[in-house]
């Protein structure tokens, strides 16, 4: 129906006849001559309709915003003074000969160029309108390029694209499963996969030594800016590899992707241990663009007569950390109070601080409500954090977990608020993760998942599970975890040891993972992999604030689709087929009886 997209029209087509199809972006009547700005997925172009072409003029005259038109006309240069060099099609216009109204349109719920004035709920309710906006089209175009680039790279490296099941069985992988009731197996449920983890390991056992998949994954968990109940994962697995092999090939993939799509040369990724990341940044995904670090001052605070500091400093699970902010002494008391509220979100009971006004004056040059409690260590403290005039020092004192989360988050917020970024892109590998983490009751759970290989023998793991490291690695970019992976357990004895430490008995292990345990008996090769969050990757590359901006039809923060009103009720007949009776309805029926 068309010869060109709107965005393809340019000076090389002058005097040629073209046919385009699209939506009316804007209509202007200038003294009997009608100007139509037409839009499609490739861009916007200007069309001129004059009264000499009566039928075309009549159709253009009745056209309104978002009408669907087909226009045929001759390309010509715009008159001098009306050209727009900032627009790809701004040097030309099309003199229309034929204008055909393919469909009319109701007045849209919001104007595309005024979307910022309406709430996100309105835009998600009418997502098909929101997706017509040029910036949304561009984001999804970049997403398509990223997927294509990844596929081409992995195919060139010998990886095979293999699909894995979407209906599977529930397995503990860190989040709640979405369950699907079975009609043919009454009382039983499928689960939607949180990841293709077990199936890709089985593919390695089967001998497909290089697998990848751009897979849909599902997790019923609390949502945030970079989480959705259904998300897309670039899943990669390979056999006969060690950590550095997987890290090298995926780093090359990401560096090539940034070069091809954004023309950005990422540096070689540095590596940092999990322990160093937590100590220096309070996070296992530190944003290295921000030149602020946490400094341990436990030994100094054990010497002060201030229990708020000396208590955590002396406790086995406690920590006191200082965060120096160069030039931060200009922060007002109101701003400091706001930061105190902020760290409270992470469980911090307060936010102590010292302003260094004139260090040469000793205590008189310091401004702080706490400095009087640490006179005996204040000089050593200032030396340790390398404090200069005009700096402010914030303190976190509590359980190490709370200090890390609160002061680590404060570091990121200060970096954004004060624009402390030193570079545009800062990638990183975080390695040597602990194998397990303990809850408040001392119960161990896997830091990644129970199929991650430990960096020790089964006997060493059994002797000291809390101190064991794993063969896991995360790729981090600008404070966002792009992907995580590990070398997997390929030995049945090691897998059984991990299950035993996690309190998963033989019977439960057989019930949940019997098919994997069986497969490990039949010549499972050493293998490992990594999974990237495609949505997060696109979000970073296009500069979006949430992954909802780079997903065509996302869910809201409450895991609902406003456009389709999902989730929704189903009929009693459907529930009967599934042998399900809703508790609320059962109570209502009982009350009615």
Automatic annotation (TrEMBL):
Alphabetical keyword list: Aminoacyl-tRNA synthetase, ATP-binding, Cytoplasm, Ligase, Nucleotide-binding, Protein biosynthesis
Site (Important for tRNA non-discrimination): 30, 81
Annotated binding of L-aspartate, by residue: 173, 219, 448, 488
SUPFAM superfamilies: Class II aaRS and biotin synthetases, GAD domain-like, Nucleic acid-binding proteins
InterPro entries, A to Z: Aa-tRNA-synt_II, aa-tRNA-synth_II, aa-tRNA-synth_II/BPL/LPL, Asp-tRNA-ligase_1, Asp-tRNA-ligase_1_N, Asp/Asn-tRNA-synth_IIb, AspRS_core, GAD-like_sf
Location(s), subcellular: Cytoplasm
Domain Aminoacyl-transfer RNA synthetases class-II family profile residue range list: 140-554
Catalytic activity entry: tRNA(Asx) + L-aspartate + ATP = L-aspartyl-tRNA(Asx) + AMP + diphosphate
Positions of region (Aspartate): 197-200
One GO CC term, this protein: cytoplasm
Any one GO molecular function term: aspartate-tRNA(Asn) ligase activity
Gene Ontology terms describing biological process: aspartyl-tRNA aminoacylation
Principal subcellular localization: cytoplasm
Amino acids binding ATP: 219-221, 228, 481, 533-536
Superkingdom of the organism of origin: Bacteria
E.C. numbers: 6.1.1.23
Subunit structure: Homodimer.
Assigned protein family: Belongs to the class-II aminoacyl-tRNA synthetase family. Type 1 subfamily.
Protein purpose: Aspartyl-tRNA synthetase with relaxed tRNA specificity since it is able to aspartylate not only its cognate tRNA(Asp) but also tRNA(Asn). Reaction proceeds in two steps: L-aspartate is first activated by ATP to form Asp-AMP and then transferred to the acceptor end of tRNA(Asp/Asn).
Protein name per its UniProtKB record: Aspartate--tRNA(Asp/Asn) ligase
Organism phylogeny: Bacteria, Pseudomonadati, Pseudomonadota, Gammaproteobacteria, Oceanospirillales
Gene: aspS
């Amino acid at each position: 129906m068309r010869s060109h997209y709107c965005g393809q029209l340019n000076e090389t087509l002058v005097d040629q006849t073209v046919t385009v199809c699209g939506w009316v972006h804007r209509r202007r009547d200038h003294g009997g001559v009608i100007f139509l700005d037409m839009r499609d997925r490739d861009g916007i172009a200007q069309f001129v309709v004059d009264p000499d072409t009566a039928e075309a003029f009549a159709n253009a005259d009745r056209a309104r915003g978002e009408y669907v038109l087909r226009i045929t006309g001759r390309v010509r240069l715009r008159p001098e003074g009306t050209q727009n060099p900032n627009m790809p099609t701004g040097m030309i216009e099309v003199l229309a000969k034929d204008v055909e109204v393919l469909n009319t349109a109701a007045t849209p719920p919001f104007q595309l160029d005024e979307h910022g004035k309406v709430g996100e709920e309105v835009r998600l309710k009418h997502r098909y309108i929101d997706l017509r906006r040029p910036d949304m089209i561009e984001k999804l175009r970049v997403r398509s390029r990223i997927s294509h680039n990844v596929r081409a790279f992995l195919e060139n490296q010998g990886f095979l694209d293999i699909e894995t099941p979407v209906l599977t069985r529930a397995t503990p992988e860190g989040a709640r499963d979405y369950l699907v009731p079975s009609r043919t197996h009454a009382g039983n449920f499928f689960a939607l996969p949180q990841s293709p983890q077990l199936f890709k390991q089985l593919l390695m056992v089967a001998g497909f030594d290089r697998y990848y998949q751009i897979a849909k994954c599902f997790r019923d968990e609390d949502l945030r800016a970079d989480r959705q109940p259904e998300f897309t994962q670039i899943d990669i697995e390979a056999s006969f590899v060690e950590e550095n092999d997987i890290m090298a090939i995926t780093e090359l993939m990401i560096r090539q992707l940034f070069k091809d799509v954004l023309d950005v040369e990422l540096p070689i990724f540095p590596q940092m241990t999990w322990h160093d990341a937590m100590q220096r940044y309070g996070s296992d995904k530190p944003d290295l663009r921000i030149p602020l670090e946490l400094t341990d001052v436990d030994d100094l605070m054990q010497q002060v007569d201030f229990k708020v500091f000396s208590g955590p400093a002396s406790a086995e699970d406690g920590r006191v950390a200082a965060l120096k902010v160069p030039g931060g002494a200009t922060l007002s008391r109101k701003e400091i109070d706001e930061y105190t509220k902020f760290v409270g979100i992470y469980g911090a009971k307060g936010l102590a601080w010292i302003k260094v006004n004139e260090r040469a004056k000793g205590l008189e040059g310091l401004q702080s409500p706490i400095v009087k409690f640490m006179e005996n260590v204040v000089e050593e403290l200032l030396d340790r954090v390398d404090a200069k005039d005009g700096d402010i020092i914030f303190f976190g004192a509590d359980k190490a977990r709370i200090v890390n989360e609160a002061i680590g988050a404060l570091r990121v917020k200060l970096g954004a608020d004060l624009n402390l970024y030193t570079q545009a892109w800062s990638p990183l590998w975080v390695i040597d993760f602990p194998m397990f983490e303990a809850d408040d009751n001392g119960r161990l759970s896997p830091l990644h998942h129970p199929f991650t290989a430990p960096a020790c023998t089964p006997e060493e793991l059994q002797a000291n599970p809390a101190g064991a490291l794993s063969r896991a690695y995360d790729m981090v970019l600008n404070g966002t975890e792009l992907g995580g992976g590990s070398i997997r357990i390929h030995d049945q004895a090691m897998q059984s040891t991990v299950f035993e430490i996690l309190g998963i008995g033989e019977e439960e292990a057989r019930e949940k993972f019997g098919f994997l345990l069986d497969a490990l008996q039949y010549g499972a090769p050493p293998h490992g992999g990594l999974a990237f969050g495609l949505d997060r990757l696109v979000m970073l590359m296009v500069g979006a604030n949430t992954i909802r901006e780079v997903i065509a039809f996302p869910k809201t923060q409450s895991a609902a689709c406003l456009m389709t009103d999902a989730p929704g009720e189903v009929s009693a007949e459907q529930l009967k087929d599934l042998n399900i009776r809703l508790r609320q309805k059962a109570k209502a029926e009982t009350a009615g009886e």
